[in-house]
Amino acid sequence: MGDPTESHGYLFPVFLLSLLQFFLVPITTWRVGSWQVEWFRGEFHDKTKITKNVFIIPTDVTSEWGKAQAARSERAKGTFGRKLRASLSVFNLVLSVGWIISALLAVHIVGKQGREAAIFDPHTILNVPFGADPMTIKKAYRRLSLQYHPDKNPDPEAHLFFTDSITPAYKALTNDIARENFEKYGHPDGKQPVRLGVALPQWMFGQDGTGPLVLCLLVGIGILLPLGMAVVAILNLNRYGGSSGGVLKESIGYFVGELRPNLSTVKVPKLLSVAAEYIQIPYRREHEEPVRHLLAALRNQYDIKEPKFQRRHPSVIKAHMLILAQACRKIDEVDSLLEGDLQLVLAALPRLWDEALKLTLSPYNQLGHCHLRPVLSFLEFSQCFTQAVSPSFRKGDSSEGIASLLQLPHVDERTATLLARKKCRSLDDLLALSGRENARRELLVHAGLSDGQVADLEDFLRFVPRVDLSAATFETEGQDEVCSMDIVTCTVNLRLNRGAFKDDTRTIAITKDGLPPLPFCQHCERNEGWWLLIADPAANAVLSHQRLDADVLLHAQTLPNGRTLQLRFPIVDPGTYSLQVILISDYWIGADVKHTIKLKVLKRTKEIMQSRKEAIKYKLKKNIDSLVQGNIDMHDNAHVNASKSDLSDSDTSCSAGVCGGDYPSEETGTEESSDDDEEFFGRNNDAVAKRRAGKEWPKIASIESDAPGSISSTQESLNLHSSETNVEETDEQQEEQTTATSTHRATS
């Protein structure tokens, strides 16, 4: 059988090829499948024209917005070099190298297997024709012996060829026994044993003095490496937390310590800058001068008189200034030494913002309420960060200032001030000018914009959302009034349109892939998000909230009547509340909608509970009456159909009697018994229907008692059940009496 540790030719390459294919095939299938899915989604959106990817090419590049947008459009062009660099990612390169190695191994295996699996042919080995005489065979053997004999050729391969091929071939052609074995078994030595081996090279078995090395490799790769990976995974798992698992637990603790119930928008960057991810960014000595320059350029964006500010960690101050530089369009003020840190800070900011917002939405009481002011501050800062508008323009709870105008193309602070002097103080005021022809264009030209800049602004306004939040109502299910301790349902209808004109036929429905480009937001990706809040401003509380997903937004843009949403929240204390229904975006400035609704909550008294109980009883009685009437109608219809069938049968029988049948005549009392049966079945059906209704009463009462806002009494339910039991007994007695009377008449 041979040495089991011998590696025969292609076994080890087969093992390597199988190991590679075990990982390459599923990974490649997943990769190619993801490309196909992305392509299909792109084709689907192009066919339905729901998503429209637009890269606005600025007409005028003289303004700050125009220069930034031109640079972004140039970076967004799909050149061959950029496509090649995008395809040659590290993952794709590793995948390609794996398949190249697999192809080389396959070629090596095919060649090695072909040589080892060659059929033993002595005539081919000795290079003699079939049927050669013994003298010719001997001459050929001598010639090959002079070339491959170990005494003539010290090469191990020559020795192996001589002993394994030449000698057996000579025996097979000269020895009668060897010839018989060759003809029978295909080899001159007779039946050959099966050659087995392991798919590993010989050096792994320590036959060449490599035993200790092999042992160390097995221990390191098979034991220490998996153990180390498990330890690293456990340590990282303990370090990171949050709902997404991508934020350090230290950062979450720092956020909790900085959160306040009255947190303002301008203090959100300060809170985000204390993240542990930013502290871990190294602060070198050469960073002192660039950070000092940013502190001077952004001195109006933070509280310079705060005593604790200068005592903060240097990495925290650096992260704080870089966040403000992005929000205030001061990226040009960032020194080249801080470019790498700027990319790290901005790339981590969306993830940290999401986790901090979830902390602000954490309830502070058992009713699920959270503080309103921090939630609005985080959403408003997200708007400023996305559109690169300074948070200092968002002053006050309800005033947006000129912040909504500064997000528009080619509009700077001077242009926004000129527009404000013409009573156009916000984005809503600018959109409201669509009713008059060329009114908006004239206003923009008067504010200093050129024709090309006005065209860019009009193109941008096609993407601006116009929110219609209507039919907002508060009610308690099944009740006309709202009492304390009730669950209140708020129902709103949402419609989301795009475009500057209400009758604009060019309006489009946009998903996250079709948003306009953000020229000043270079190092992070931002998606449009919407939040629906039910808030009590007087108590600084959010009673209920919901983040709208992509399907809800798509329906709100495409359905004719919009999308209906419902939020529920408990109300505890009686009184008159001035609640707000707020729809706010974390992407656009000035697109928020707020509706104030008065809600009167009554005190939960016995009179109100008694009236609700009476209403429930009336509803139960109405349902039972309809059920009884339905059963009676069903049985009456069945009886009428049966009477018609009997009548048709009697007509047929009478005609049969005329022809000689023996059907009894009218003198036997057939018609009288028919009337009695009709009377009997009708009363019996009424009794059965009432009895069934009596059995269904306790079930309906138990179901209705679980309705919101209702209180049922156990004793009254028992009394009701007992009274219905008496009704059932009375119906049974009436049924027995009716049956006896009918039987007596039939007998007489």
Quick structural gist:
The protein has 748 residues and is α+β, with helices and mostly antiparallel strands. The chain has helices at 11-48, 64-76, 80-87, 90-116, 122-126, 134-148, 156-174, 176-185, 211-239, 249-258, 268-272, 276-279, 288-297, 314-327, 339-360, 372-387, 403-406, 413-421, 427-431, 439-446, 451-461, 550-558, 606-658, 670-704, 714-747, and strands spanning 240-241, 247-248, 370-371, 465-476, 482-483, 486-498, 530-536, 541-548, 563-571, 575-585, 593-602. It has 25 helices and eleven strands.
Please provide a written account of the structure.
By secondary structure, the chain is an alpha+beta fold. Among the domains are: 122-185, Orthogonal Bundle (Helix Hairpins); 244-360, Sec63 N-terminal domain-like fold, CATH 1.10.3380.10; 606-645 and 674-747, no CATH class. Helix content is 55%, strand content 10%. It has helices at 11-48, 64-76, 80-87, 90-116, 122-126, 134-148, 156-174, 176-185, 211-239, 249-258, 268-272, 276-279, 288-297, 314-327, 339-360, 372-387, 403-406, 413-421, 427-431, 439-446, 451-461, 550-558, 606-658, 670-704, 714-747; strands at 240-241, 247-248, 370-371, 465-476, 482-483, 486-498, 530-536, 541-548, 563-571, 575-585, 593-602. The protein has a 6-stranded mixed sheet. It has a 3-stranded antiparallel sheet with strand order 4-6-9. Mean pLDDT is 76; it is low at 1-8, 43-55, 502-507, 647-688 and 690-748.
Look at the structure and name the CATH superfamily of the domain at 244-360.
Sec63 N-terminal domain-like domain
Tally of extended strands?
11
Number of helix segments? Answer: 25
Low-confidence stretches: 1-8, 43-55, 502-507, 647-688, 690-748
What is the global morphology? elongated
Q: What Rg, in angstroms, do the CA atoms define?
A: 45 Å
End-to-end Cα distance, whole Å, is: 110 Å
Going by CATH, the architecture of the domain at 244-360 would be Orthogonal Bundle
Quickly give the structural class. Answer: alpha+beta
Helical residues, percent = 55-70%
Strand residues, percent: 5-15%
- Characterize the main sheet: 6 strands, mixed
Just give the CATH class of the domain at 244-360.
Mainly Alpha
Overall average residue pLDDT: 76
Largest sheet, order of strands side by side? 3-8-7-10-11-5
Return the CATH topology of the domain at 244-360.
Answer: Sec63 N-terminal domain-like fold
